[in-house]
Design a protein that fits this description.
With about 290 residues, this protein is an alpha/beta fold. Helices cover about 50% and strands about 15% of the residues. Strand 6, helix 8 and strand 7 (about 225-230) form a beta-alpha-beta unit.
């Protein structure tokens, strides 16, 4: 129910800006602190091929900007932004252009996971691309009941993962609703990945999961070159800095672009208390 103008004020903390140069500036600042990044052009669920082609070009421009500015960053992409809901083959072609460009520039592409309606299609896209290219990885979500089985399947390809809880609203039949169960599944999936020797981006702002990951890393004697922690731009910066000070790799997800509204609403849905704080600050007299 918050006005779009208010959501825009909120978004400024969590989004680098609307232009590529805004994201470059933010990543340069993060890099100066010893923190690495992944850049994301906001947008998803495009409905026309022209929109998907523009998004593909935007992604190619990001890769070039990373190279030209000597940034320590890779690229994250959403398949529905590249035409997955229009045509699988068309989306594959767009992804292929991006991954080829990243390979030429010695960079890496993370294929984001979206809602459950496209989970299988995204996994199939990833596996097809992985047959020829090794500079790509995928995201899996611990709140989905299928994830442990998906990881067994993906492990056969030496998959590079980002493991997160997941924030889409899904039916109870396919997703865990209990908060602690989502956490437990996160750690179960992480253990399976580590035991199989996979590289994992441990994507969480949850102190419980960070501590659980550290205990597992120590228990299984996982070397530092087999994992990194990942967080969203503007979220829990004290925890981010603590991980960085510990000497562990920490990567920040840096979104930018015109489509800031949907991303901001998702962040608010993830933490509804923020909406109350914003509303209160508007109507409280100082």
């Amino acid at each position: 129910m918050l006005p779009k103008s208010v959501v825009h004020l909120f978004s400024r903390k969590y989004i680098a800006g609307e232009k590529l140069e805004d994201a470059v500036r933010v990543v340069k600042d993060l890099n100066s602190k010893g923190i690495i990044a992944t850049m994301d052009v906001l947008g998803e669920s495009v409905k026309t091929k022209d929109e998907a082609r523009r998004a593909t070009k935007d992604c190619l421009d990001v890769l070039q900007a990373i190279h030209d500015n000597s940034l320590d960053s890779n690229l994250s992409v959403k398949p529905t932004q590249l035409g997955l809901l229009i045509d699988n083959e068309f989306c594959h072609e767009n992804l292929l252009l991006i991954i080829k460009k990243a390979k030429e520039l010695n960079n890496f592409v993370r294929i984001d996971m979206e809602d459950s309606s496209v989970t299988e299609a995204i996994i199939k896209l990833y596996l097809r691309l992985r047959e020829k290219y090794d500079n790509l990885g995928i995201v899996v979500q611990s709140y989905l009941k299928r994830t442990i089985t998906d990881v067994e399947r993906l492990n056969k390809n030496g998959t590079n993962y980002r493991l997160c809880k997941g924030i889409y609203i899904e039916p109870e039949e396919i997703a865990y609703r209990d908060y602690q169960k989502v956490r437990e599944n996160f750690l179960d999936v992480l253990r399976q990945m580590f035991k199989n020797g996979n590289y994992v981006g441990i994507a969480t702002h949850d102190d419980y999961l960070v501590e659980g990951a550290y205990k597992m890393i120590e228990e299984l004697k996982i070397p530092k070159n087999k994992y990194e922690f990942q967080m969203l731009y503007g979220v829990k910066e004290k925890l981010r800095d603590k991980i960085n000070t510990n000497g562990d790799k920490i990567r920040i997800y840096v979104p930018f672009g015109d489509h800031w509204y949907a991303y901001s609403i998702r962040r608010l849905q993830e933490n509804p208390q923020l909406a109350w704080y914003i509303t209160k600050s508007i109507f409280t007299l100082n």
